[in-house]
Amino acid sequence: MTAAALSPSRSGLGRGADRRPAYGDAAHAALTPRQAEYRIFARVTHRLSEAQAALEAGEIGAYSRLASAAHDNLRLWLTLAADLMIEENGLPETLRAGLLSLAAYVERETPRLVKREISAAPLVEINASVMKGLRGQVEAP
Fold this sequence. Notes:
Elements: H1 3-6, H2 26-29, H3 33-56, H4 62-84, H5 93-114, H6 121-134
Helix pairs in contact: 3-4, 3-6, 4-5
């Protein structure tokens, strides 16, 4: 996956998006692609988790925040899937297939989350696993 494919911008995620750094500071510009991807996953995952907790606590506006976070999480995964399908993607075939499978799961479960049939927990767990991989941590079997 490339950081450019996932870089946030005013026009959204993806290849056609504006390529300016999200924060405009030197620290952000110095991020490796892997660090940038981690940061995007962390931000979306935090929003999902926080909105789910707010919804469970009965906070006003929590559902709207959860729906927005779920939408952004889905966009992230669809962007990732599009990048994974490009022939030039440098990831090993088995990893690409596994990530594409997770993207399909996120695509299938997001409407269920928005309809309140499930909680955000499974999507948060998937994102957390991807973040561990981006940090180079391997989970024990």
